[in-house]
Each structure stands twice: as C-alpha cells, then as structure tokens.
Amino acid sequence: MSDAVEGGARRRGRDETEEERADRMWQELIQEVRVAQMGVQILFGFLLTVVFTEKYDDLTSTDQTIYLVTVVLGACATGALIGPVSLHRIVSGRRVKPQAVRLASRLTLLGLALLLATTTASLLLILRVATHDGFVPYLVAGVVGWYLLCWLVLPLWTRYRHTSE
To answer: Do residues 65 and 127 make contact, with C-beta atoms less than 8 angstroms apart?
Structure first.
C-alpha cells in the first residue's frame, strides 16, 4: 500500500482493524511456519532412523550423547513449530485471534531457535563421525555464525534500519 499524506506528514502502514490485522498476520505466520515445519520434519525423520543403523553401535559414548540430545532438540522443535496449528484449531471461533497470533509467533520463534540447536548438533555429530578432526568445532561455529547472520542479524538490522517509530 502506498504512503498516505495526512496533514503534511507521511503515514506508513495499513488502514486495518485489529481483527483484519490479526487475520493478515495469521496468514503470514502460517506461510512462514510451513517452510520451517518442512525442514524440521525432514531433519527429524532422518535423525530417527540413525539409531537403527549398524553404524550407531560404533559411535563413541560422546557421539551417542550428541545424537540423543539432537533427537530431543528435533522433537522439541517439531512440537513448537506444529504448535501454532494446534493453537489455531483449538481457539478458532473464540474471538481471540490477536492473542493467538502473538502466542503462535512466540512458539514459532522458539521453534526456530530449537531448529538452530538441532541443526547445529546434527552438523556437529555428522562432522565428528565423518572426519574425527579437531577443526570440526570451528567449522560448526562458522556455520552457526552464518545461521545467526541470516536468521537474526539481518532481520534485526532490517527492522532497525527500515522501521519508523
């Protein structure tokens, strides 16, 4: 929507009611959650199969611990990212959409943080098993830095740089 001019001042944003805004924000949130859900569900599905492979018994106790932590993180990420769907279904028609959108947004952010932890632990485990080399923690730290840049720093910078009071 283009800027509106009121009393010589430029106004940005939409002219919508609280309910219209909640409806729009809900649709945007669900589209975002779909992307994250697919990623976490694929990763979690692959993680669940590892324990049934012959290679699992050959893992060190440290690697088995990393695996177990990774599976639990993946399960928690899956729960948080599917949570908004359940929330919507349970409160639908109860006239609490603005509150539901806020809670679903928090669940989604929590799910993304858990997805970051799951992906980090998965990468650590895979690289430890694949290379047995001392540079693995540094490589994982570099990837986590990249994720934080893409998922947190750039969005916060954009928010700061392009959001008016």
So the answer is: no
Assigned token pair, 118? 């799951």
Q: Do 118 and 77 form a contact (C-beta atoms < 8 A)?
A: yes
Q: How far apart are CA 52 and CA 49, in angstroms?
A: 6
Separation of alpha carbons 88 and 85, rounded Å: 5
Tallying the residues shown for the chain, one arrives at 165
CA pair distance 110, 90, nearest whole angstrom: 20
Alpha helices in the chain (DSSP H): 18-50, 54-58, 61-91, 97-131, 136-148, 154-162
pLDDT tens-digit readout, 84-139: 999 999 998 899 999 999 999 999 999 999 999 999 999 999 999 999 899 999 99
- Contact partners, residue 30, CB within 8 Å, separation at least 6: 84, 85, 88
pTM of the model: 0.86
Q: How far apart are CA 42 and CA 46, in angstroms?
A: 6
DSSP letter, residue 13: S
Any idea what DSSP says for residue 3?
P
Instruction: Quote the CA–CA distance of 13 and 11 in Å, as a whole number.
Output: 7
